[in-house]
Amino acid sequence: MSSATLTRTSDTAAPSTRRRPLRPARVVLHVFLAAVAVGWLFPILWAVLTSLRSYEYTATHGYVSFGGWTLDNYVTAWRTAEFGKHFLNSVYITVPAVLLTLFLASCVAFVIARFSWKLNIALLGLFTAANLLPQQALLIPLFRMFTEVPLPAWMSDSELLYDSYWGLILVNVAFQSGFCVFVLSNYMKALPHELYEAAMVDGASVWRQYWQVTMPLCRPALAALATLEVTWIYNEFFWATVLMRTGDKFPVTSSLNNLRGEFFTDNNLVSAGSVLVAIPTLVIFFLLQKQFVRGLTLGASKG
Q: In whole angstroms, how far apart are CA 118 and each of 115, 121, 178, 183?
């Protein structure tokens, strides 16, 4: 009896495990996706390959050749660009900027998603429209403002917002908050209103509704945004070169300028430095990969 049942079950389950035939459209799709993947990976693989070769060998045989393998480029890049010190500068800027961005964006998103008032949509549109404004358009007014805003000596050596970590933190928070508000507000709107009604019945204040009800439920979205924000703020190059002048304060991405020569640039050395700079973001992405994917896909099946 059991053997017959197992036979019927295997017979009925067999068709469901069969592979679908490859149609021409499916083959074209696979070829297209493979070509896109190769196109994205080629610059990275080429930079890694270039960083593992000596400049003398590539200058003689060209870059389209194999040989001259060495790790000296990484040692030289680390010493020349002083990556150890500049990595700490990036930490001083990235960590506070990400935490402050997520906190402020979550506060604004909570107000937009939880309360209904006349300026609700206008406030969301204001934060969203800020992402559409080119950063270069604000270069001159921001530069002039930073050179005139004073800070205490214990906060900035220059006693100005210019040439200080605080300036870069505030700039990144200002330009990254809009995207986070947009994502978190849409995510919070999908939360059941019954949770807030139950919290109000229990006497929970607005702050407790935000901190103890909403924030725990938004952990996947916050993890996904934290991954993106760390990558974007860590890789930020434009504002650091404009709003800072002291070389010892530059973040690690701006310190790549130290690898340029006066008369020529060693591309092998710059490639090694670029690989070293990219390693922290890759490590953070792989560590938070599950939370990142979960935060992006959560709610996709809700009707």
A: 10, 8, 20, 21
